Amino acid sequence: MFWRMTGLSTASPVDSILDKESFTLEELLDEDDIIQECKALNTRLINFLRDKAQVEKLLRYIVEESPEDAEKKQSFKFPFIACEIFTCEIDIILRTLVEDEELMDLLFSFLKPDHTHSALLSGYFSKVVICLMLRKSTPLMNYVQGHQEIITQLVDLIGITSMMEVLLRLIGADETMYTGSSETMKWLEDTNVLDLIVDKFSSSESPEVHANAAEILCAITRYAPPALASKISSPSFVGQLFHHALEESRPKSVLVHSLSVCISLLDPKRLASASYQAYRSNLSHGTVVTASPETVDGMLSSLGDLLKLLEISADESTLPTTYGHLQPPFGKHRLKIVEFISVLLTIGSESAEKELVQQGAVKRVIDLFFEYAFNNFLHHHVENILVSCLESNKSLLTDHVLVDCKLVDKILNSEKNPTLSSDPSKPTIPTEGRAPPKIGNSGHMTRISNKLVQLSNSNSTIQTHLQENSEWSEWLTNVFLKRNEVENVYQWACGRPTSLHNAGRDSDEEDMRDRDYDVAALANNLSQAFRYGIYSNDDLEEGQGSLDRDDEDVYFDDESAEVVISSLRLSDDNDSSSLFTNSNWFAFEDDRGGSSLTSPSDNTADDAPAKVENEEQDNEEDTADEVILDQIDKVAPFSDDMETIVLGNGPTKEANGDDSITPEVASVEPEGKQVVPNGVLENETAKDDATVTSPDPVSNKKEEVADFEMEASPKVEPQMG
């Protein structure tokens, strides 16, 4: 490597320590470069750290708490560095650890009940174990299989998130496929790890323990090893979950997280992130758990007890809010019950649909929709329930929603009274002495009404019910259609008018693709424009200074051209003289073949003809003669009117009285020098040596054309050298 070459870098402090006759591990751990040296595979350093004694010292920093009177670096820095050394994944060091049972015993001694488990050291322990699972999975799993008490110890520490992650990976409920995992994890079939995890719902009062236990169980439902898939979806396991969830003495967090597991069983993809699903689609291992009809029936057996918790009359708690107060607040556990009902209706189980109708679950959640007018989480789930019922094309659900639950009448009543009711018997009460606010579920009612109108076109039951309600028809015509027109954002005359008529556009890139701009050509033209200073007539001094730059300073790539195009897109697209619809906009005078005699700027006439002139003299002299002679015939009648001529490569000259023009003095650029627009060299001492008289008559004719073109452009006072 470059930094290893002799004479190019100083010696590493780590090498300086290794050069000593005697040194300690702590001296190395105190050096900031030790991790970098490990990653660079410093041979002497790795040979020292691979020793069993040194690995044991590193492990003790990870699993043992430092004394209270210890220095800060011993309590914080050394454990961190020790963990990082292991996670550098140096094979020879990891092999020393996994092949020695005493060292493995020392590592997992951290899980013993009599050991302290700080969050800091727990994180270091989990990182080391996960590193071993990735690099040394087979020997690690063989060790855990021979010491199955490790699983029990990890379940006991499930409230610590780091320990939960270790347990999650040990039982194979994560997205990583470990080497030989299918063979080494078969022994999990004979363990009671699921029962141990579920028992945490009854034996612990900590919400963190309940949340982490539910997270592991949900992960198993999303990606379960074959050994655990059949167990977690069995009716007995679901019954065990509901038994703990419905215990009155248990905290509400047990109910919430138990229902999360049931929801994950019914719909495994529901709780999985989008990134996980994208990764999961590429995997061929693992089993996606789906609830069997027997499992659903086991859940329905406890539905009545769940619906009792939706009754709020016995709850006397109060929660003050900005608009009034709630008595009682809806609560997270009730919200989770409504979500559970919503998922039950999406699985297509006829037994679940019949039970929900008979138990009055749908009717109760619709009442809660109107009673808690500001709980948008509740409104979202109730809307999903109604849409599932209406789209099912089953008369049982459709008639129940429209007839038994009187959904349309309740929507119309809310439209008549759009403010919050002051009835003290309601759970949502406005603040006294203030005007009641407008209810907060109007948007969801609008969406539900639109869904009713949409489905009435294909469902005769819905259509008949709506047509029989004259009040609905009147409200639909006089109020609802106008509201939809007002709330249609694609008809608003503000924001981005270019996107109003195309709702499918998601980005400016699609708008860019619709244009016929040649971006590569525009980039080249923009580069030339800034190179020769013709982009603006008002910035003459900047144009002159631009000649001192390198070509790279004024280069425009495709991305830069798109930026300029975007900034100019506000111009009229129908204008025939638009900047980018005229493909000849950036063309120079000689490039356009005499199509225009008006120079776009002063600097164009000064510099561009001289540069084109040199190329024509070398390569196309005969063709240039014909073009320029034709141009001289056109401009000759105007030569009398020319009084002063500003040349880009020489001093100002005056026209002679006999209508002839004095031959131009051409400025030749010395090697290593640059010419500024007024023809004066940067080095004044070289000016006299840099001028020669041009004897070529063809060149003189070209100069006459350039002079005439300069006359047609705005005049600039001559600048003498």
UniProtKB/TrEMBL annotation:
**Which protein is depicted?**
Serine/threonine-protein phosphatase 6 regulatory subunit 1
Q: Which family does it belong to?
A: Belongs to the SAPS family.
Q: Which GO terms describe its molecular function?
A: protein phosphatase binding; protein phosphatase regulator activity
Q: Which PANTHER family match?
A: SIT4 PHOSPHATASE-ASSOCIATED FAMILY PROTEIN, SIT4 YEAST -ASSOCIATING PROTEIN-RELATED
Positions of the UniProt region annotated as Disordered: 416-443, 592-626, 647-721
Point to the regions of Polar residues compositional bias.
Answer: 416-425
**Coiled-coil ranges per UniProt:** none
Q: Compositional bias of type Acidic residues: which residue ranges?
A: 615-626
In terms of Pfam families, this protein maps to: SAPS
Q: Which InterPro entries match?
A: ARM-like, ARM-type_fold, SAPS
